[in-house]
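Q: What structure does this chain adopt?
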Amino acid sequence: MRRKAVIEAAGLRWSVVESLPVHEDIKQAKGRCEEYLENYRQSLRNLAACGIRTVCYNFMALTDWTRTNLAMLMPDGSEAPRFDAVDLALFDIHLLQRPGADEDYSETVSSLAAAALSQMTAIQKQTLTQTILMGLPGTVEDFTIEDFRRALSEYAHIDSALLRRNFAAFLSAIIPIAEECGVVMAIHPDDPPFPVFGLPRIAATEADLAAILAAVDSPANGITFCTGSLGANAANDLPSMLRRFGSRVHFLHLRNVAREPNGSFYEADHLGGSTDMAAVMRAAIDVMRQRGISLPMRPDHGHRMLDDLKKEGFYPGYSAIGRLRGLAELRGLEAGIRSIMAAES
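A:
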């Protein structure tokens, strides 16, 4: 409540909590699951009492996001996070040494990973390991490869079908309280939107999102529409998906990724990359007009650039200047499209 007061004193409004994490015991339906569910319900009550009515969260098994390089050098001198399929295979097969990992990659990717390994220094191996482990919630400094192996072993018996059942149980336990408190839940898609480390994915495709909304058919059970996460899967038609699920979209993450043929991608400029951001923005405006609301939106991720290159201690993707540039671009895009739409009507 004190933090909210400080924010409002600065003339801002705190309207979305991102994120309210889901404990691994809930995802795996084990141990102290019921206790953590009750804690989650109480957290929703507490947020509602503070006037915060939108909750972004994810149900990704173990990981939060996965990147292999946090400082890919861009042509303009800025730095961007990158997911490289070969580097992931290198880590998974040779550094993590996950049982059965070599079966999850094509012969081409496995061969390239082995060749890259032979050229890596000890420092490069350490950097890759630290980068990947940074994507594990709450474990930026202390999580080790041994810890990761143990955590992965706990998912050995959990496939996508079981994780979906556990997620449906979570929704059944949480959504009634959300409805009671006037809170809407907005699940963030899986990042990246395909399996990594043998872990199941349940929020990566249009079919996945449809199943999530059908699991508990309530306006309180909704989506954070992240164009970066969903956009890393070429099969996802983002404008079409946004229009289809628009009535249940409660939060917008607008960012862009540039996809590569082997499954690699990197964080592109907000108006660049593989996603037609203008088409997405037009779909978002259509949804907001149909619903008569203004959806909360943020420029998700951003390049590290200019003076931020001299700063330390920031979280990758969340440097100030790159995100402010993205915000300016997106606001300009929205204003331009609204002007065109007004002229067309």
